[in-house]
Task: structure prediction
Amino acid sequence: FNIKPIDKVFEYSSAIVSTHSAKFLIISLYRSPSADITIFFELLVKLLTAGYAKCSQIIICSDQNINLINYDRNTNTFLDILSSFNVYPTIDIPTRKSKESATLIDNISSNAEYDNAEVLECGFSDHMAILLTISVDSSIKKDEDWVLKRVYSNHNKRFFYNAIKTETWNSVYQSTCTNTKYDCFVGILQYYFQTAFPLKKYKSSLYTAKHPRPWITPEIRTMSKDLKDQHFLWKVTGNRDVLINYKILKKKYCRIIDKA
Result:
């Protein structure tokens, strides 16, 4: 989220957890007792607004240092903000006890259906633990398969051609060492190539149930991409060294294909 945490005033972290049957936005939230509560409320509204746009089921694990047992203006404001997003605290008994007092400053608030919420004595803190139980399909939602590809569109090709055409190649001409000349030439060429044809992430259709291709290993996919890149470079530049590299890579690629 584009909401910057503020030390002691509004400290938070968040994650979206998905299963086959549900998706939850889980927020961990903290405010120190002496922090500006007005800023805390303002940022809480912004966070919940942004969060609700991404995920309708929200779980807030908070130590907001607002005593929900003591009904005052801050308590009412906090509960009003939560309820405006249909989010409500799940705990209504003290979570921090001492000889002098008992307060409810920790909570798990949510708008998701849950089975049980309870306060547990953890034994190593003056705050008690809170356990919220929600029944969902525990199967983890499988991520889509993705591949990295370069797009050789006419627009990208024109960009690459113009970049090569306008390059001065000064570093190549000024060098007196043949190896350095070659390194400079390849470095410049690769820079424009990577700029014109950057690797982009696309959904893969290689492992769909309709078109399974288990023989296409990650090594084969990577080498195929490199082979296409080298061939394109050779066509554009006509450089003999690029052609030699392309032929060597092609022989290796064919051997791997034969083994697969």
